[in-house]
Structure formats: C-alpha cells, structure tokens
Amino acid sequence: MRTVPDATGIREGVRMKVVFGGPIARPQVLEVLRQFPGVDVLAVDEADDVCPHVGDADVLVIANPRDKGRHIAEALGSPACRVKWVQMVSAGTEGLTAHPLPPHIPITNQGGAAAPAVAEHAMGLLLALTHRLDVALKNQAAASWNVGALRPLLQSVEGMTVGVIGMGNIGRELALRLRAFGATVHGFSRSGESNEAADAMHRIAELKSQVSSLDALVVCVALVPQTRHLVDAELLSLCRKTAYVINIARGESVDSLALDAALREGRIAGAGLDVTDPEPLPADHPLWTAPNLILTPHTAPMGNKLVGRRVAAVVRENMQRFLEGRELLHRVEL
Length: 334
Hints:
- By secondary structure, this protein is an alpha/beta fold.
- It has two domains: 7-113 and 305-324, Rossmann fold (3-Layer(aba) Sandwich); 115-295, NAD(P)-binding Rossmann-like Domain (Rossmann fold, 3-Layer(aba) Sandwich), CATH 3.40.50.720.
- Helices cover 31% and strands 16% of the residues.
- The chain is built from twelve helices and twelve strands.
- It has helices at residues 7-11, 26-33, 69-76, 94-97, 115-130, 133-141, 147-150, 169-180, 207-210, 233-238, 256-264, 305-324, and strands at residues 16-21, 39-44, 59-62, 85-88, 107-108, 161-165, 184-189, 200-203, 216-219, 244-247, 270-273, 293-295.
- The strands form two sheets. The chain has a seven-stranded parallel beta sheet with strand order 8-7-6-9-10-11-12, with helices on one face. A five-stranded parallel beta sheet has the order 2-1-3-4-5, covered by helices on one side.
- α2 (26-33) packs parallel to α12 (305-324) and α5 crosses α8.
- The radius of gyration is 22 Å and the shape is elongated.
- The protein starts with 6 loop residues before the first helix and ends in a 10-residue tail after the last helix.
C-alpha cells in the first residue's frame, strides 16, 4: 500500500504542511525544509508543541519528545490525523515509539548523524576516568601537586578490554575509536552477529557471563523494555573492582541507585554518565555526590558542527524521497 503522496500533487498546486519542533539542528533543518516548493513550514519550540497541529499537518519533523510523547502518539492515531510521515531529528525515538502508533505512518530517525560526536564524548569520559582528571582538577583547585595520590589510580585505555553494549551507529563509531587507542573491543548486540568494528561479538543475553572479563563497559544500546535497567545491581556485582561504566545512551538503561551503591562501596572504579534516570537529575539525587563519578548533562551530541549538517542532509534526502513516493531511509521498526 502506498503511504506517501504523489509528487505530482505538489506540482499541481496542492500545498503540503510540515511542522518542525525541537532544538536539534534547528537552523539547518528549517533551511532545508523551506527550500522545497509547495511546502509550508511551521516551526514550534519543542517536539511536545506539535500536538495541536497534528490534525492539519502532512509531515512532522521533531526531536525525541519527552513529556508529551504519549499525547503525540494518541493524536497520530486519531481519525482526524492527516500526518503521513514522522521524521525524527534525534537518534533516540522512544519518547514517541514507546507508545502505540498507527502502522501506516512511517517513523524515521537521523540515521546516525550524531554518532561520531556521541562516540567522541564516550571516549572523553573514559579517558577522563582512566587518567583521573576529576582528581587532578580537585588537586589543582587546592594547589596540590599530589603525584603520589594519583599514581596508583591511573590506567590507560591502551591494553584495556572494553565491552560496548549496542553495536548500532554509536557503538560502531565508539568501537573504531577504542581500537585506534589500542583497546580490545567486545561488542554486545541482540543477535551477537559478527561486526567488523569489534574484535569479538556476543549476544546481550551473554553479558552477565562476560562482564567479569571487561575493564570498562559502555552502554550504547537503544532503550526498549528489555534494556531498561540492563546494568543493574547484579551485573555491577559481577564487574571487576577496577572496571568503569559509561552510559551515553539512555539513563533508564542503568539502575541509578544500584550504580550509586556500587560507587560508594568501591565495587567498581568509577563511572561516566551523560544521561541519567531521572533526567534532568534532581538536585537532591545521591548520584551528585557519588565518588569517582563524572556527570555531563546530556551534552554528548553537542559541539560538533557537522552533526547539524548531517541531520539536515538526512531530512533533505527523506523529504525528496517522500515527495517522489520512494522508500524512506532510516525507518524505525515498531
């Protein structure tokens, strides 16, 4: 069944409405959308703000909604909805796709546009932890040249065995960077199928039997019910005491309280989080004071000027395909 409009309808004067919402690649994507003839573009502040426009929009181009994803999904399923396609400009889509959606509306994502930036951030967290930059900064603030305290804490990524959970776009980019630093990469995916970016592959179901052999564990997996609290108290209890845990995927994949306990009890060497559960992290949450923890406020995709261009390129290509009735790229399986 054809699920996209015929481009001839646009050429004959039938205008199409696209609603854009969210901060991701905003200027680049809006510039691209406004280049298509016959397309009217309405920009709202956030993805959550598109709800009132679902009844008269043909296409939604949005970031991953958080608070109102269920409301958007319900609006897409209403008889009054005329939306024919939803393009996500974020890597994650679970804010929307966690809710029931009509099967005739394709959902597409950014296709790994931010993966290099996120992988770089994960490397930054791991390097900061292994070289104990958090301790060095505290010493600097105290004007303390304390080599003796730092020396026994230091590690090198070279020679480490690192587990990468989730070998999608981000996981592959991270694996390539880890190997360039001299680490051995064990990838974990649902199927465990061979991947050229990793030295070895395992099924995620094998994680608990393999984790004791890892010097670091990096969570890159998409959030689905099966990966919620994938890193839990039991898994953390199986880790080496010298191991590090990094999460740059979704906060809910790691049990925050279990991680806090593992850090306080010295059962792992440290952790780096760019995402938390809940998010934003409340001021009274225990993780703020957990030892050997580096927190960044979900900034992994930021600061890379190429990300916006790549996101816009995905939107351009998919919009062209949509208008021509061709298969869309980076479709999300529901």
